Amino acid sequence: MLLLSLCMLSMLALPLWHKADPLTHQELTLGAFGFTAANMPAPAGPVWVIAVLAFASSVVATYEIFQFRNRLGQLKLGTLNLLLIVATFGAAFYFAGRGEVNLNIKLEGQYQPAFYLPTVALILNLLANRFIRRDEQHVRSSYDRLR
Fold first, then answer.
1. How many CB atoms lie within 10 A of CB 129?
2. DSSP summary character for residue 38
3. For 69, which DSSP code?
4. Measured distance CA(36)–CA(43) in Å, rounded
5. Which residue(s) pair with 9 in the sheet?
6. Quick one: pLDDT at residue 51?
7. Which residues face 139 on adjacent strands?
8. How is the chain split into domains, by residue range?
9. H or E stretch at 51
10. Do residues 145 and 138 make contact, with C-beta atoms less than 8 angstroms apart?
């Protein structure tokens, strides 16, 4: 869960998507807080939603670490985090698509490393939930044996 939190926090600092037009020397880069444009006006829109969702996911994962005594609560927080990560990925994909339209349509933009971090975080979240569930089943079977 700590790695998940670090993935989502590093998403705030790294670029998500980049597109450059070599003929007009226009460049457009999508970050978690907004578009950065060179030689052109930056598109408007609530891109900060990506940053809010990524930060919320990081906070939930960090809080989930300290809920080790309440495994069912951890599973619920893991499900919430799953939804936040999917929403972050969807928002990043949506705004990258909106940026794609603002520059030469014939050229394709490149997804940067931060775009793939929610996928890594999603896998880490699924693994954490799996092991939490396995631990809960182990504790219940041990408790039943003692009874």
1. 19
2. E
3. T
4. 9
5. none
6. 96
7. none
8. 2-139
9. helix 48-65
10. no
Predicted TM-score (pTM) of the model is 0.89
Three-state DSSP at 43 gives coil
Token pair for residue 143? 């408790």
Distance set, CA 72 to CA 7, 20, 131, 133, 135 (Å):
24, 48, 12, 8, 11
Q: Which two tokens stand for residue 68?
A: 């080790």
Cα distance between residue 136 and residue 65, in whole Å: 15
Q: Which residues of the chain fall short of a pLDDT of 70?
A: 147
Architecture of domain 2-139: Up-down Bundle (1.20)
94-113 per-position pLDDT tens digit: 999 888 888 777 888 899 99
Q: Which single residue is written with the structure tokens 């003929």? A: 23
pLDDT of residue 147: 66
Of 144, 27, 8, give the one whose Cα is nearest residue 88.
Answer: 8
CA trace torsion 76, 79, 85, 89 (10° rounding) = -160
